[in-house]
Amino acid sequence: MADMDPGNERPKGFLLFDGSFESGNLGQVTRVNALEWDVSIRADTLNPRFRVWYHFSVSNMLAGQKALINVTNFSKTKSLYRDGMTPVVRSTSRPKWERLPDKHVYYYRSPRHDGAYVLSVALAFDRAETYHFAYCYPYTYGALQQLLQQLDSLNLPFYRRDCLCRTLQHRRLDVLTISSAENLAHLDSLGECGGPREVCAHAPGGRRLPVIFVSARVHPGETPSSFMMHGLIAWALSADPSAVRLRSLCALKLVPMVNADGVALGNYRSSSLGVDLNRHWQSPSEWASPTIYALKQLMGRYARADALKVSLCVDLHAHSTVTSGFLFCNAGDDPDGFEREAAFPRALGSACRDFSFASSKFCADPAKAGTGRRALSDMLGGACCYTLEVSFFASADGGKLAPYTQRDFCTLGARIGVALHDYNLQQQQVTSSAGPGHSFLGARCPNWACLAVAAGADAQRAGEAANGADARTGACRRKEGAAAPGHRPPGSQRGAAVLGAPGARVAAAAPVLGCRVAGGAWSASSSNAAIWASVGGEPPAERRRRAVRAASTTAAPLAAAVTPSACRFGWAGAKTGTLPVAGDGLASVALEPHVRMLGRPLGAERERGGALGPPLGNASADAHGEAAGPAAGVARSRSHSAHAPRPRHSVSTTPSVS
């Protein structure tokens, strides 16, 4: 928009607001007085429940003019604004998006607005030009198409772009396939694998080719997911050795924008029909939810193909109230199921400091049955399905909030790619390992077990039991008679398995609380507690009731000495929240030893210039090359904001292409 719209008669200084552009969102605008304006958010199309995303422009001001803009009608009161988040801004002459300084942004209950929460921004426009304000960094459908057209022109032998279907408003649902040229040729040979059980030639080497699906923007206002997808695409197409290896190990199916109509309309959560597409995966309508329907059909065809194996599905999201990254995971029905579900969160926590296994949420909430994570897990059987959430605003680094930039979100996407590589490499090692008990770390160690903690156990007896473990391999061995005092294993099985310790001698009466994994070996510190692994099945109901009572005395000391991430109070094989009992007076707890993962350092990564640039032209500006951005111009900020981004080590989002 020009500084002065030729079609209006408003004098200079009378602010003009506009939201009629791609991804724009602007409701009613009310002039309170000469300096103050109330702005409302337009609700999602055909759905009045969601009013969070906003994106509008302001023009026709005088240079040096001051204004107070109030955003008045948020549908969610709990917000990252309480933690210091601020809107992002850019202007005509300074097209790079920046966050406003927090000292000029206020989030509070306003008496003038009937006690509703209001976001007020105090501005001083230093130049007479058009300014854009948004809830978070925009990433539009047009920007995505520009990126994909650029990729098409490269004619890469390991990249393919397909239009799976059209949205209700005739936009493309693009599916990108990234894999080695050999794997792509194999996929092409399969054609449309349909029918109850399609029999096709297997992948090179006679193996089933693993397929990984990663999707983004099912919720259109969650723009960080697009930047993460952008970073993942850039990394997966790069010459990074891990990316090259991942392309040979599996086929990546990337869906950059599931809800393109909602993105273009400026919705926060809904499609053009007002539907939350992430609640319709169980029974999607071909008419009302064509993108979900088409994706589910595609995954179903791949699942029925003998030559393919859908191994992993990750749906990228952004969260409006947290300052950390985490995963929603499906709750495993048994110990092996938990280990399988926990493998990727661990790999991600190792590859990226913004995520931790401790933050993962294993959820079986019936209200989430329609999400992609739940519905696809039920349909695909052995596939592990996740919802990945990242904060709209910042990560907590050493207790201090470090606001994300566009480049930071792209870097997260690249680190997700590294985690996918590590996960697939670990799965290959697990598949090729001899015998059970091989963990994702590539070293033999006990699977998730029900551990009975016997406080005050006889140290000598515990030491004798520990000596029965195989110190060379760390494999769990059943040893008749090596039971704690009073221990009666449940069920028909007898005896107890003791956790072994390769590379480290298990001290007498080694406790659960001392277990650590370091360099692939188990180690333990001595204390007055013994470790016992139950080999029995789920106890009868009366023992479960007794376990709940005993847990009140067992859980307290455990929780005091073990981080919440290391201790799971509950039986992995039952969703009742009860605990099995190993014997009289002993409460068993399902405990996962805290894992110290030695992942790749985030530093010392080499920036490489190349064909893939940032998604928007304004994002290519050097983070340190612009002396005064629009945020400084409109707000006259102090030189150092309290929420200034920390220096970050990052993977290049503009890698060279192999």
TrEMBL record:
Active site, per annotation: 389
Pfam families the UniProt entry points to: Pepdidase_M14_N, Peptidase_M14
Domain of life of the source: Eukaryota
Basic residues bias spans: 637-649
Entry cofactors: Zn(2+)
Entry-linked InterPro entries: Cytosolic_carboxypeptidase (IPR050821), Pepdidase_M14_N (IPR040626), Peptidase_M14 (IPR000834)
Region (Disordered) location: 468-497, 605-658
UniProt similarity note: Belongs to the peptidase M14 family.
Protein name in UniProt: Peptidase M14 domain-containing protein
